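Predict both folds.
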Amino acid sequence: MSRSTFMWLVDALQDRLQQQQTVMRAPVSVEERVAVGVWWMANIQSYRTIGQQFGLARSTVAAIVMEVARAIAEELHRRVVYLWNTDRVMRAFAAKGFPQCIGAMDGCHIRVRVPVHLAQFYVNCKNYTSVLLQGTVDNVGRFVDIVVGQSGQSQDAHVLVRSSISARMETGLYVPGNPTRTIEGVPVPPLILADAAYPLRRWLIPPYKGHLNAQQAHFNKVHGRARNVVDRAFGRLKARWRCLLLQMPVELRNVKPVVAACCILPNVCEDRGHAVPEVFTEEERRALADAEAAPLDPDPQMPDAAGEAVREALNAWLWRRARRH
């Protein structure tokens, strides 16, 4: 994060953090508190180690981290995490071969520490305790929607139905004007691409599963090429904010604002062209691989006729284009 971006963040949080000065022997400036919070999120270091770097007590660092995370989550979410320039996003996905697409969605596990009596409710399929982060990104990997907090035992489809983006896409209110295009005789609304763990909907398109014919295999290839932007976004997220890589040393009730803040800050950084650090230790690489593991099979879903019609129309359109070229 550059000095100019850091100062923008300080200015954005100034009023909020001045009102919530941590009780301590000597006041800590807003600039230093933001530095402490951002440093903790960007590094795998204990409160004690960071306290030694900044000359602060461990308990003070812990309190500041949560103040800053909550301030970012509550003050900047609406300002930073949103779908902007829909036409440009659609054109960019169309250039990758997929029409009408405004985003890609996926989920990943965030390791958390939970009380012993709750552990059984948070143990995921990889046998560690976690909560799920559902992220939706645009064509360049900016987060346009995030949902965090469901138990790691939850399936992606369960998180989806409890998210506001699902209701807004269902009603056509998420994308301004809900621009619809007729493809192969079928009205196709703005679309979000997802992996096979998600249900098929008129606006949510997972790939085909099972034994595929040549046409379906081609569809999945084009779909995967467009959808992998969300996988790369999760990788960049954890490369920048490494507190998400290993088990988060915060109380369960504090996980949501910290994860939200970590999803907001990449948009701030990428809007300003900052490079992503991509050097991982072997332990961090294993943690990344575990985190991306989603349940293989969604809950049985009733066939969605509108979704089937849209996917089949897209399938035919993509195949016809491929045969022409």
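Second protein follows, with its predicted structure tokens after the sequence.
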Amino acid sequence: MGRYPCAEELLAAAAEQAGLSDFGPGDFREGLTVLLDSLGRDGDLSPDADAAVLADFRRRLVNRLEVEAWYGDHPEVDDVPVRGPVDINGLPRTGTTALADMMSLDPRFRCLRGWEQTRPVPPPTGGDEANDPRRAEFVAMQERRSAEHRAKHTVEVDATMEDTELLGMAFHGQQMTLPVRGYWDWWRQADLTETYRYHRRVVKLLGSRRPPDLWLFKAPHHKFHLDALAAAYPDMRFVMTHRDPAKVVPSYTSLVSSILPPADGERDLRALGREISEHLREGMEHAIRARSLVGEDRFLDVHHRDLVADPKGTIRRIYAWLGLDLTPDVEQAILGWQQANRMGAAGTHRYTAEQFGLSAAQIRSDYDFYIRHFDVALEG
């Protein structure tokens, strides 16, 4: 027996824990098998991390069982409308989080919150979310974050967040929280058509008791599979953010290195830097190809330099493109958030490209196709 259980063993454990047997549709078993194999082959984790990692996998399987049980008891959920959504994506560290946090202040959007993703059943109830224990637990977890991690990444409790858990329930998520390079290679080329169909199934459930139904999504990793995402949400419109990749790649590598579980020994950060740079580059290649298939008219490009230098003008341009009125109250809330959370307000994220075996010149050379395609400004 290897260090990690096989997929069938985890499925059996989840079924026993939940007292349920229907895991629902999709090809999640393939993703789970690839993930476990990669963890055993590529992982460098300390054995002390194993229990928490496997508990996350099991929780996601239990979530699947509970979603199907809820649908069985509430078949009307399948008729819940999903308008939009508006999807914010692009390379990470390009302003996706800031833009999502600002637009989440508009009550016309239904946000995909992190705390409701961790356990979707029962769906949250409008007007009673302040008392939801999932939200309280999430708040407590954020309060325990170190000042260093706060400087690296802001988290707003009720803003839309990456759909890490929804894709994780399908075991077709990017999985940048584990050192599983073999899984990353497989995932980049995987067909996520069934994954995003299941994604919509869970989104309907989450929205069934909590309006509105115009959804706001945000996830840099969406750029890898835009065609599958658009197939699941035919009315979706995309806001893609851009920034100098020489700033993006080292910053994201630093973030990933800080959220990976502890290694058994010293982790090779230079290898990690190379892997992430190649990963993100391939993602942008996928995105450019997919945009031509999905339709360029469904995309609005927003540059980080404009979001920082002229947040008011940038937000107004986005709302005009979406055909939404930007009310004075919402605009004031957005600009107030931007002022309070301007770059550096939470501290300084310190890193160098060189500590990850990277250089600005090499990154810009590797991403020259991206810089030219979107006329991305280079930063000093």
